[in-house]
Amino acid sequence: MALPSSASAARLRLITVPALLLLLSSAALLVFLILPSLSPSSSATSAHLCACSPPSTHTTTTVTTTTTTASPAPVTTSPADVAWLKAQLASNSLLAGGAAASHDAWHRLRKGINPRTREQQLFDINRHHGISHYPDEEASNHTALPCPGELLVEEHHSNYGEPWAGGRDVFEFLANASTLTPTDQVLEIGCGTLRVGLHFIRYLEAGRFHCLERDELSLMAALRYELPAQGLLYKRPMIVRGEDMDFSKFGDTVMYDLIYASAVFLHIPDKLVWIGLERLAGKLRPQRGRIFVSHNIKFCSRLGGDVCTQRLAKLGLEYVGKHTHDSLLFNHYEIWFEFRRPKV
């Protein structure tokens, strides 16, 4: 077979290349038009891409929940809290100094308020047998925890001299100074009407607050009014009536992380204070546990520094130091003395 001449080959290349390009273009267009009919449906493709299960008659929904543990409420009022409150007072045009110029001026501030003294409130409660004015024969049939009128008007808030609000100051200081946690065990010697104890009870886990109190009226106020009124019955504090530093009802195995006496040892003979310390020394958690006593420690200073140190050492205790704590609400501060039990 004869080979084509060079001129004929050139013409063949000129004809073949465009034709080949046209052929390839036509084939690509044909594939583009035919391919969708050969592919799965768009909905099926979407289902594949989103990795969803194929449709079925029964649909099972799985809900994933995340359990978060709320942070404990802060113990101390922060500078930011104080700044926020001051801003609220200013925005509401309330008194900058916190009090009016006179008693009459103070009462002129009220609008729509009909104030009554505790004496007037008590008179009304006794006269009307309560807010709903029950008839005499039904006066005691509608209250789960009948409470004396004197407690209902909160006369006991004035029984201990200092403002009731001071209890929050004491709690903040002691909780911070002892690095308290909700699982710690606390004992108050002389909790009175729970001016301080309420804050500990609210902060601690159930059953973690113990108290020894000798005054009957204070115990009535604590148990019959304060705990129900504050919604703290579920915290089950152990409040025991007793004196002479008898802690036997709290059990033999309990170990305390914090023991405190707020203005109590001032009214107890030195001999009895030392008896109490002797009984409690072995119940204080070594190293971490703390004993705090407010105002003064004359039971110790009256012996002389060296003698007191030696006596404490015999009990397994040591003096840590003195603290001054300022009040948040009123012109007042307290002195506290700290003791601990060295490592056994």
UniProtKB/TrEMBL annotation:
CDD domains: AdoMet_MTases (cd02440). SUPFAM superfamilies: S-adenosyl-L-methionine-dependent methyltransferases. InterPro entries: SAM-dependent_MTases_sf. This is Methyltransferase type 12 domain-containing protein. Residues 56-75 are annotated as: Disordered. The lineage of its organism: Eukaryota, Viridiplantae, Streptophyta, Embryophyta, Tracheophyta.
